[in-house]
Amino acid sequence: MSTAVTGQSRNKTRSIVVWTIVALVGAAGWTMLALSRGEEVSAAWMVAAAAGSYAIGYRFYSKFIAYKVLKADKTRATPAERLDNGIDFQPTDRRVLFGHHFAAISGAGPLVGPVLAAQMGYLPGTIWIIAGVIFAGAVQDMVVLFFSTRRNGRSLGQMAREEIGPLGGAAALLAVFAIMIILLAVLALVVVNALAESPWGTFSIGMTIPIALFMGFYLRVIRPGRIAEVSLIGVALLLLALVAGRWVAKSSWAEAFTLSKESLVIWLVVYAFIASVLPVWMLLAPRDYLSTFMKLGTIALLFIGVVVAAPMLKMDAVTDFATQGTGPVFAGSLFPFVFITIACGALSGFHSLISSGTTPKMVEKETQVRMIGYGSMLLESSVAIMAMIAACVLDPGLYFGMNSAPVVLGETVQDWVGTIQSWGFTITEDQMVAYAKSVEEASLWGRTGGAPTFAIGVAEIFSTVTSDGLKAFWYHFAIMFEALFILTALDAGTRVGRFMLQDTLGNVYKPLKRVSWWPGLIVSSAIVTGLWGYFLWVGVRDPLGGINQLFPLFGISNQLLGAVALTVCTTLLIKSGRLKWAWVTGVPLVWVATVTLTASWQKVFSDDPRVGFFAQGDKAQAAIDSGTLEGKALTDAETIVTNTTVDGVLSALFAILVVVVIADAARVCIKSVRNPASVVSHEEPYTESKYIAPAQLFATKEEKAELQAAGLGSGGGRIDGAGDRSEVGS
Amino acid sequence: MTAVRTAASRIWWYVRELTGETAYERYVAHVRKDHPDAPVQSRREFERERTDRQAADPRQGFRCC
């Protein structure tokens, strides 16, 4: 008895010491980041601040939410256990599911947002990424996952309809569709800006199509289901294509792969349309294996690179653009626009679709939502930190030369250099040429969209670890990595959009609901690709610069979906009698609603033509009316009027949708607080679990004993023993 | 040497699980255990049905931003 007590208190002391050290490391990182003025800071401090904060957030806050707020119960059977059908419902090893979930939530978003937000300095973005994920983003992912798990894996839309009502449900569905379209347009724009006039990049990305087709054929015909081996072959071919891209760029073929932005748009739209009507096994599935491998591999390399190289951050902690709101990358002041620009990595509404889709049907134990929901999102957030580091290790002059909208910089190269120097950054024409040459690109001026900047940052970091000669290779490696999963997202996203469209239109005309009905398939695919293709085309032709117009719209829509998800979570907490804990999702909801609505308000009503869409349109209209414009200037002005009207209307629509959802939910919440007896629970009733599995990555001493007593490996399994699949037990 | 081999086999196990290569093995185990009399699909048929299901409801394999 007494030895047990001393053992326990020794453990407790050790835990206090360990967590004090973690807190000190994090605090030291924050201090160095915040207090540096004028001198360069090592990126290692940013890593320390992030890692320390994540560890503390995970250890304390996520534990509090899991056990105090949600009351995750390890004796309660999950849908995976109860409904196990060997297909979509099946208990999946927590470590594997963590990988699945992370691969599904992470994409190009966290690589783009932080790069753009770096114009305000590294500090505002970093604070939001880290604080946002701990208190909002990871909370959303985990709570949605938990509630969906309690409801047999219901989707967010279904939960909104059941728990809030048909109006809120319909608004949520419409929001998801609109957001999907904007998302696809923005992602495609990032690819177009990265591949334009770049034969190396275009060739290697183009080669992913035949590689994926080969893999698809291999899996369908030659050796069905041997995914791991064909993925390894695919990755090898991909690296070969990357190396070959350089030969092509230097050969007489280069011209054929040097495409303008306009022709890339056409290629992309045509590609996405064809890809989305082809059978899944041919292109989508194999491409997905490739991009998952590349994604996980590159992120791992990036972590190693940043830690080993520990580069210096050359960007200021806070630039003047943060306070003045006159930034050349995107206009608007720090609040609300940093919080809009960085969506993925801090809080991403899109994740709620994954957390309420595939993952909840595979969770072994309710207690694992902490590791899978909260943990995966922390990892995604650290990817955003890496992107922030990649942007901030560059010379600020280079950063602004690449990311500023052309209209801001001026007409000629001399103007561009002059404008950047007038902001207090040093850059010369020769330096820009040298930078472009070092990565074997034609030019780096105005390479907006985030991907080229991220890729140069990555090349900078990796080449200090490997050798300078590999810089161009690493640059194109990073471009390929980003473009690869954007192309997968275009295909998959078009399919999801089509599915939603077919499902909705099918209520009007029955045959449309059948996914195998060809005319319906082709028409709805064409509508979806046409919609995002329109925004992509507009973005590429936009005289004001596409990404700075579209990205805020994407951020607003993504955060809006986050607001919808947090509304559903808060409603569920209140309806299940947990009013006193409703702040856990309620406070992030208030925050994100304030941010989105302020941003939408400014985008619609601001008098500043740089910020407000309608003010921008009015300015262009006034110029047209004055009759002084002719030729290109006139068509540009007319384009601006059309674009700003569409964008302004969309911003207003998004804001109205979120207000409708929140108001409808508030009605439900008030009703359930006033009359708790009226609440109907849609939760599945309690069933006792016959499954044993640890809650965290590593099993505790008690869990190990429990597993051993049941004769199970570290992966866990059913108590009767038949579910044990863990060949590599520890 | 055994440490290297254990590490390699763990990584291989993880890769196979993550890619879904083991889905068929799990399906066979599932049928054998819960429906001993039911016929077991061949791997070819099983994998075909798996991708066809994804085509029918693309939300299953959806990837985020």
TrEMBL record, chain A:
It holds the Pfam family CstA. It is a multi-pass membrane protein. Residues 43-599 form the CstA N-terminal domain. Residues 721-730 have a biased composition (Basic and acidic residues). Residues 710-730 are annotated as: Disordered. One of its GO terms (biological process) is cellular response to starvation. The chain crosses the membrane at residues 16-36, 42-61, 102-121, 127-147, 167-192, 198-218, 230-249, 264-284, 296-313, 333-354, 375-399, 473-494, 515-538, 550-574, 581-601, 649-670. It is found in: Cell membrane. Keywords: Cell membrane, Membrane, Transmembrane, Transmembrane helix, Transport. The keyword NAD does not apply. Its main location: membrane. It comes from the Bacteria. InterPro entries: CstA, CstA_N. One of its GO terms (cellular component) is plasma membrane. Coiled coil: none annotated. Belongs to the peptide transporter carbon starvation (CstA) (TC 2.A.114) family. This is Carbon starvation protein. It comes from Streptomyces indicus.
From TrEMBL, chain B:
InterPro entries: Sel_put. It comes from the Bacteria. Residues 36-56 have a biased composition (Basic and acidic residues). Residues 36-65 are annotated as: Disordered. Pfam families: Sel_put. This is Uncharacterized short protein YbdD, DUF466 family. It comes from Streptomyces indicus. The lineage of its organism: Bacteria, Bacillati, Actinomycetota, Actinomycetes, Kitasatosporales.
